[in-house]
Amino acid sequence: MRSSLSLFIGRRFSRTQKRNILVSFISLSSTIGISVGVMVVILGLSAMNGFERELNNRVLSVVAHGQLEGVEGPVKDWQAMQKSALEHPDVIGAAPYVKFTALLERGAKRVPAQISGIDPQQEINVSSISEFIDSNGWKALSSDPDAMVLGKGMADRLGVSEGD
Question: If 122 and its partner were Cys, which of 58, 77, 87, 95 is the partner (CB 3.0–4.6 Å)?
């Protein structure tokens, strides 16, 4: 059986005599360089796969993949729009929301915020945000129409805690 040319060349350079140290050094350096290069590519691909998984599981699971908004003002009959969207075979969930910009204030501390008003019972059909909120907070959000959930950073800047 004939072996390939690359195996022939590889064997020849790896079995050199002691008298040709330069060829042995070049062969060893090439082998180490290729090994390190392959290792770097494998590590890079592993890191990118992990990043993609985290992006899908954490970031994209709480952000709507599409939003329908009124062009000339707010949507008056959102129930009909929701029903129409759910009739499409590729749509797996739809929930109403209200979005506005606000200035949150506590004492002398003020923080600008983008507020999203949701219906908690319908929101669980379109995002996994309830998994990232304490179960007591999600229950309070569901039972109290005036309840609000703040991120830790914003709560710290305002100096508020749970129940404020």
Answer: 95
Q: State yes or no: pLDDT of 8 exceeds 70.
A: yes
Tell which phi-psi region holds residue 163, choosing left (phi > 0), alpha (psi between -120 and 50) or beta: left
Distance between CA 56 and CA 82 in Å, rounded?
25
The per-residue pLDDT for range 78-97, each reduced to its tens digit, is 888 889 888 989 888 888 88
Domain span holding position 99: 78-158
Residue 153, pLDDT above cutoff 60 = yes
Q: Are 113 and 103 in contact (CB under 8 A)?
A: yes
Domain co-membership, 99 together with 45:
no
Token code pair at residue 19 = 């008298």
Residue pair 94/86 in contact (Cβ under 8 Å)? The answer is: yes
Total Cβ atoms within 10 A of residue 95: 17
Per the domain annotation, does 164 fall within a domain? no
Question: What pLDDT does 13 receive?
Answer: 66
